[in-house]
Amino acid sequence: MASTSIWRNALGIAVFAWVLSYCVGQARRSARADDVLPSWNDGPSRRAILAFLAAVTDRRAPTFVEPSRRIAVFDNDGTLWAEQPLYIQLQFAIDRVQALAAQHPEWRAQEPFKAILAGDRQLLARMSQHDVAKLIAATHAGITTDAFDRAARRWFESAMHPRFGRLYRECVYQPMLELLALLRANGFRTFVVSGGGVDFMRAVAEDVYRVPPAQVIGSSGKTHFEIRDGRPVLTKLPEVSSIDDAQGKPINIHLHVGQRPILAFGNSDGDLQMLQYAAFGEQPHLALLLHHDDARREYAYDRHSPIGRLDRALDVAAKRGWTVVSMKTDWSRVFPRAPGAGRMLELR
Amino acid sequence: MASTSIWRNALGIAVFAWVLSYCVGQARRSARADDVLPSWNDGPSRRAILAFLAAVTDRRAPTFVEPSRRIAVFDNDGTLWAEQPLYIQLQFAIDRVQALAAQHPEWRAQEPFKAILAGDRQLLARMSQHDVAKLIAATHAGITTDAFDRAARRWFESAMHPRFGRLYRECVYQPMLELLALLRANGFRTFVVSGGGVDFMRAVAEDVYRVPPAQVIGSSGKTHFEIRDGRPVLTKLPEVSSIDDAQGKPINIHLHVGQRPILAFGNSDGDLQMLQYAAFGEQPHLALLLHHDDARREYAYDRHSPIGRLDRALDVAAKRGWTVVSMKTDWSRVFPRAPGAGRMLELR
Hints:
2 copies of one chain form a homodimer.
Chain A: H1 2-32, H2 44-57, E1 71-74, H3 88-100, H4 113-117, H5 121-125, H6 129-140, E2 143-144, H7 145-158, H8 174-185, E3 189-197, H9 198-209, E4 216-228, E5 231-242, H10 248-256, E6 263-266, H11 272-278, E7 286-293, E8 300-301, H12 312-320, E9 323-326, H13 327-330
Parallel strand pairs in A: 1-3, 1-6, 3-4, 6-7, 7-9
Antiparallel strand pairs in A: 2-5, 4-5, 7-8
Helix pairs in contact in A: 3-6, 7-9
């Protein structure tokens, strides 16, 4: 009986291994075919991505990278989803001020809450870092992590982008969804490394990017653990723990991933250090910057933008030969076809 | 051509799906068979584990848990490997003092370095928290993360346990290796949540536990990012960033995993909050405590031990009906059979 079961298992494993190797082979072949990255136009960016994938997955090539070392990191705001006219999380914070105003009568006399409650959209553009920190602390802290997660999920269900007539969660870039899926089909683990708050991003990252919570890295605040009414709860505190921007990105990648990525994709100066960290070393690597140069379909901004400023990183990219992706010429499509298509299918 | 390739892909995927479901079925059946957890004696602990696995993987049962929610967290020192007579990382720090002494003549006049260099093993037992912090800072900081990783790996290659005649890295518990592998075969992601330093643990966790760096959580210090001589490097600073012990464990699980575990395994009061965090909620869960009651094969210690004190957690376990695993009666074997067997094979 036991030995029958051993043989059955062995047979199952052998067939499994054969089919697995067949499928991996197919995936590798199809990575070179015309049917991958359909929303990317043929050009140097798409070719650089496909050449890189071919190089690191070809077991006979000196550029081969073991699957366990295939780590890809992506900035979020402006790289995976739209960040104009305002960071999506900032809009969430503003909407939360409206929602919580009844419990905070003192806000009617305090900036930045007063201006937000008066609907002064101009003020937001000139809000100081101090005001933003106050706004985030007031709307993101003093609440359990479970309750915050529910609030963020509820907000994502209906909050609409002011220009595109689709939910914020649907303002993700279709070419990037295709790239994430292609990387995973080629054995990569994909991480989101966002300047935004990790708890906010996790409320939506699994649904829209197929990135599990443990592979989402972001800015974070301190939390407090206690047993309250017999229940173990974590409460979000107003103190900042980590700002996941600029040099904070490689620092957090080391802390959370513990391996140097071989592919990094960003769009602003805040991503420079993450790209420098990845685009170095003996093993092959690919550093990419998305250039927003498409005012018609999305937005055009770079060196002087208050949001998503891309200045020094553009100079370093030119000097180092990094791949600068033009939204206008490299992408045949920006957003998913049907609003409501925020959920995606894996390649396999 | 394209349509042939589509059909080939579809066939491959169909066969793949069938074999996958066959193998998963086999794994599930074999989880109930006698050939899993071979180093666990039949008894309430082994039965509780197998019953829990059957409950969360049976798709028709109300206790079914989606694979994406199957998170298991393990303390390290005293749960996955031996922590007596001294935490392994503390022995590493002590050996590093010896190795670095030539570069630090001032240590000959400073405690705790002076006593360590004099080989005073008694002093170590009465070292204050302040001395330990000084020791860790002096031996773990002021070095790049890459250089530290190399130093830790080198140490693990030859550092021997003083009693068991095997490498420290081979002082892992065979029954726990089997449990980790069984959980993964049942769709769990396994995380190590150690009071030890995350950089130290990662140097060995993938080899001995098959846990990738991104699934290792631990205490951590601050790091600094810079481009030095054209190379992007992270340097370890002496400032502590997070102590992954007691309430620090659920806090770090939230930060790094972002999901509530459904299985938690610890062995000391420092693991209490992690077990409380996991052993709660609507979904099924399993909380386990390893009780070191085997002076003959390993060590016997609990309520009054300076290392791995198990006192309050034992009371809570009794009250809450958590599973207390007896090393003496529940385990037929403590360490892997052959020294040198620190590497393990997956179940599949």
